[in-house]
Amino acid sequence: MSEVNADIAVQRFARLSRMPLEHVGATSGLAPREVWTSVRDVFRQREMLDLLIRRDLKAKYKDSALGFLWSLARPLMQLAIYFVVLGHFLGAARGIPDFAIFVFAGLTAMGLFQEIAVGGTGSILANAGLVKKVYLPREVFPLASTGSALFNFGVQLAVLLVATVAVGAPPIHLEIIYAVPSLLVIVVYGLAFGVFFGAVNVYLRDTQYLVEVAMMLLFWASPVVYSWQMVDTIVTNQVLVDVYTSNPLTLAVIGFQEAFWTAGDALTQPQDLGLRLTVALIVGLGLLFASHRVFLRLQGNFAQEL
Q: Is pLDDT at 183 greater than 80 in this prediction?
């Protein structure tokens, strides 16, 4: 009997020796093959990604009476403050028709970018327990933050559409097509920031605070509560205007305003907005690829640093 068991064991080891070895674990190289392997691993874990998105959404509003409606509290409060203080007290609304729709369109776009970038930056630290105990493609954590941000964005976008109908200016015009490239630009750049700074934040914990400050600067550097036409009129140096306009977030915010703010159809807008958004998207994809490569390089010591 023992001889039979020994033969079975020998045959089993022989079969195992003929099986090709498959790498299991986080890749840390920068070769194109390893980048593709990382993307494939994320796709294989798409069910886990879905669970992480659901977990983030449920945890954020756990034991809350209003639940997901709280995702509207901050942008609506910002809208009220900017509409009253900037729009009427400081007179910003005088040259901007349907100022409330204008501001809320910009807040919806900028809010999505900020939530993706800030959430991605803190995603690895927030999931330190999983990173140290279970192997998962680390990219799923900033992706889960992006999915949660897109859900909140969907709720705010629905409110924006209802508001446009309420004021009698629904976005039924050809410019609505600008919403697609603008959304892609925001998601790509936000994810690129989140992936890069999420990895750096593991090693340098001050990164998350730096990103929050940068978000504030980017907010005021984009035409959210003031119009692009004001910048074009006040700034006499055309080169500075072109540099300002070439900011991908500026283009994305203008694209959202063009799509949902029909009162701005008669106003002058940047030339070749569609082409500018396309170029910004291509550059953003390159930035996302570079950020992912840096992420792969740094993720090897995540568990030790955490």
A: yes
CA 187 – CA 150 distance, rounded (Å): 9
pLDDT (0 to 100) of residue 286? 94
Token look-up 């446009």 returns: 164
Q: Where are the domains of the chain?
A: 26-305
Distance separating alpha carbons of residues 136 and 305, to the nearest angstrom: 17
Look at the block and give the residue holding tokens 């701005």.
264
Could you give the angle at the alpha carbon of 146 between the alpha carbons of 34 and 24, nearest 5°? 30
Rounded distance between C-alpha atoms, residue 194 and residue 186, angstroms:
12
Pick the closest to residue 178 from 276, 263, 66, 89 (CA basis): 276
d(CA 249, CA 245): 9
pLDDT digits (tens, 9 = 90+) for 194-208: 999 999 999 988 899
Buried/exposed code over 149-170 (b: 16+ C-beta within 10 A; e: otherwise): bbebbeebbebbeebbeeeebe
**pTM exceeds 0.90 for this model:** no
Q: Among candidates 91, 82, 141, 148, which has minimal Cα distance to 115? A: 148
Structure tokens at 104: 């809320």
